[in-house]
Write a structure and sequence with these properties.
Length: 486
């Protein structure tokens, strides 16, 4: 086929996030950055998340500001009234394979009919764990696919080594010493233990475990994409360079939420990515924070997905209260496992406590909270977005990871970057109490040196001339080149 060179075309990028808050948010930051480079953008959500987006954000003013932006939706294959937090990842993947894949193909075909306003898709940027849905379709329709893996680089690198660890009998390791060092993952020999491996490795049998095999498959499938985009920066430079052996091209453009702010600061635009997106934010905590002394408040949040058992919740509560520190706690209605809606109950404890040393909300404006001068520490599950948001704010962390990449992230936080403590696999109020005191008072000085250093690295990366700033320029230019060749 003869390809024509076209000099003045605005690329059209179709973005497809995995349908969860922690994946949608970084994808939306990237979409806004591409939109501000005058790209045409189609952002594809599942119907369920599209409805939440319409309900909780001011899409009209956003689209007025970015007329080159459109939102589309496809079915997830899940019934509308099912409780999302009660689903397993397998439920979601099976449903998406059956319903979302053909719907995404149809959508790409319909977008391929070029109009005066919109040219056909230049490329697809899809979540790196959606290769099962996007690879075949983009190859069939000859639309280049770029994978945005919203987890960090270390997590992907570890996945490339899991087949060998399984073959060597290192996995499964349950019932063995969880502190046993993991050998055979270059760059991680000195600090990775069994308990720090991805949550999917905690299985009794490895060969037929659906999720473990699924994520291994998706990680290797990503190498078929034209490029890998990672929400990371210099703190993972060594592992990114190791990953280079698997990919034609890697763009590191993190922390994305900060890069968006840095690149779009003069635009003063309404944003979808900086808000809670799928949840209504309770901003009353900002007023409470305004009346607290500098660096005195511990912010406690478990992201959008993690559930805690009653026992964990009770140990957490006692640890926080007994530490004597001020805290702002996010209790999502679905935070308590197996008791949908029960998380709302502790809100009653908030009554009359506002003037005291604690405050509870069901969903906080997290980036704003972490940037508030009154916040001095972060107790987090260690999701990658939360970790990056804590890093950018220069706030040291206590990680209480529960699954997935959180086990890896928390180990890097404590042992590699030394910006916090890792309390994985414990559930004890007195440990929480001690760690909170250490973070806020006793060991504060020793942890703040590296926290400030890593925060500076993050800011340098996203400011003009920094690595992520330049890599985004490179990505934009490469997509423009693709558009000229269509
Ligand atoms: C999930 C996984 O659990 C996580 O490990 C993975 O890296 C991404 O997908 P989630 O658990 O929601 O994400 O955690 P995280 O990555 O931290 O994302 C949560 C997002 O929700 C953050 O951007 C945070 O700012 C936002 N949030 C959370 C709020 O805005 N307000 C809140 O009250 C809680």
């Amino acid at each position: 086929m003869i390809r024509m060179e076209r000099s003045h075309v605005n690329p059209h990028v179709v973005l497809l996030p995995y349908p969860l808050q922690g994946h949608i948010k970084p994808m939306m930051s990237l979409a806004e950055l591409l939109g501000s480079a005058n790209f045409q953008v189609t952002f594809v959500n599942t119907n369920h998340n599209h409805d939440l987006l319409l309900r909780n954000t001011d899409i009209t003013s956003f689209c007025n500001r970015f007329p080159n932006f459109q939102f589309r939706s496809i079915p997830s294959g899940l019934p509308a009234n099912v409780i999302r937090s009660g689903l397993t990842a397998k439920d979601v993947f099976d449903a998406m394979k059956a319903m979302s894949k053909p719907a995404f193909r149809d959508l790409l075909i319909s977008l391929g009919e070029e109009t005066e306003q919109r040219q056909r898709p230049t490329c697809v940027i899809a979540d790196g764990i959606l290769c099962f849905l996007t690879l075949d379709v983009s190859e069939e329709l000859q639309i280049p696919l770029l994978a945005l893996r919203t987890h960090n680089a270390s997590y992907s690198w570890i996945y490339f080594h899991l087949p060998k660890l399984i073959e060597d009998g290192h996995i499964p390791f349950l019932d063995e010493n969880m502190d046993k060092p993991v050998a055979g993952i270059p760059g991680f020999e000195n600090f990775l233990r069994n308990r720090d491996l991805p949550g999917t490795c905690r299985v009794k049998t490895s060969d037929d475990d659906y999720l473990l095999q699924f994520f291994i498959g998706e990680t290797f499938a990503m190498t078929r994409a034209s490029a890998l985009i990672l929400n990371t920066f210099e703190i993972e430079a060594p592992v990114v360079s190791l990953l280079g052996s698997h990919f034609t091209k890697i763009y590191t453009i993190g922390p994305l939420h900060k890069l968006r702010k840095s690149r779009m600061k003069d635009i003063n635009s309404p944003s979808v990515s900086s808000s809670g997106i799928l949840q209504k934010e309770d901003t009353s905590c900002m007023t409470w924070l305004n009346s607290q002394p500098p660096k005195s408040v511990l912010y406690v949040s478990f992201g959008s997905l993690v559930g805690l058992t009653r026992e964990q919740m009770s140990e957490l509560w006692h640890g926080l209260v007994n530490s004597g520190q001020r805290f702002l706690l996010v209790v999502r209605p679905d935070l308590i496992l197996g008791e949908p809606g029960a998380g709302a109950t502790p809100l009653a404890q908030n009554k009359g406590t506002e003037e005291r040393n604690r405050f509870i909300v069901s969903w906080a404006p997290q980036e704003e909270v972490l940037a508030h001068p009154a916040v001095g520490g972060f107790l987090t599950h260690g999701g990658w977005n939360s970790t990056l948001e804590g890093i950018v704010a220069g706030v040291p962390m206590i990680c209480w990871p529960q699954f997935s990449d959180q086990f890896v992230n928390s180990r890097c936080v404590s042992e590699v970057w030394k910006i916090g403590f890792d309390m994985k696999d414990t559930c004890d109020g007195s440990i929480i109490e001690k760690l909170v005191r250490d973070l806020m008072e006793n060991k504060r000085e020793e942890i703040m040196g590296s926290t400030d250093r890593v925060a500076t690295m993050a800011h340098d990366a996203v400011n003009e001339g920094g690595s992520s700033y330049r890599n985004l320029d490179g990505l934009i230019e490469d997509i423009r080149l693709m558009a000229r060749k269509i």
